[in-house]
Write a structure and sequence with these properties.
Order of helices and strands: HHHHEHHEEH
Protein name: Transcriptional repressor Rok
CATH class of the domain at 98-170: Mainly Alpha
Largest sheet: 3 strands, antiparallel
Mean pLDDT: 78
Shape: elongated
Low-confidence stretches: 83-88, 164-175
Pfam families: Rok_N, WHD_Rok
Number of strands: 3
CATH topology of the domain at 98-170: Arc Repressor Mutant, subunit A
Keywords: Coiled coil
Length: about 180
């Protein structure tokens, strides 16, 4: 008696076999096309022509490799923001927007606060001061961190203003 599990396993094996056969057929057809193209190239280019004089046409494999390399290069640029920042300067924040107002208030609150502040507390204070709600605090704080590197995320959901405090220590009058 067939169980549903055995039927599914059998179907997977059939699909696997069909996939292998299809790949084999495609490979054979591709090889036939390549051989026909080689024959046509040999008919168009007489044998007497030297290799130095022949125009080198890139094969499909070479083109695919070049494309893969360009994708890897783009991936590395995205992974390393220092490279990207030198190529594409950051957009400046738009003045007068809701998020800009939120960011300014957030910076003021972080300046006034001595230590770390929880993101939820910061959100409540910003909303209370601006009268406008923040839909997604994580996204808002990521934008704030992007435009203001002096703000740091110290731990999960905790933020602090670093450079301002360091400058205040350095600017204190020495005796």
């Amino acid at each position: 008696m067939f169980t549903e599990r055995e039927a599914l396993r059998l179907r997977l094996e059939q699909l696997n076999d069909a996939e292998i056969n299809l790949l084999r057929q495609l490979r054979e057809e591709r090889n036939e096309i390549y051989s026909k193209l080689r024959e046509l190239d040999n008919q168009n280019n007489p044998v007497e022509v030297t290799d130095a004089n022949m125009i080198h046409k890139k094969s499909l494999l070479e083109l695919a490799n070049e494309t893969a390399k360009s994708f890897e290069k783009n991936k590395q640029e995205k992974a390393n923001p220092s490279i990207v920042s030198s190529l594409n300067p950051r957009r400046k924040p738009r003045l007068g927007t809701k998020s800009h107002k939120h960011r300014e208030v957030a910076l003021k609150i972080l300046r006034d606060r001595k230590g770390e502040i929880r993101g939820s507390e910061l959100q409540k204070e910003i909303e209370k001061e601006t009268g406008m709600s923040i839909r997604n605090m994580t996204t808002f704080m990521q934008g704030l961190l992007k435009y203001h590197p002096e703000v740091e995320k110290t731990y999960r959901g905790r933020y602090v203003l670093r450079k301002e405090k360091d400058n205040a220590i350095n600017e204190s009058p020495s005796e």
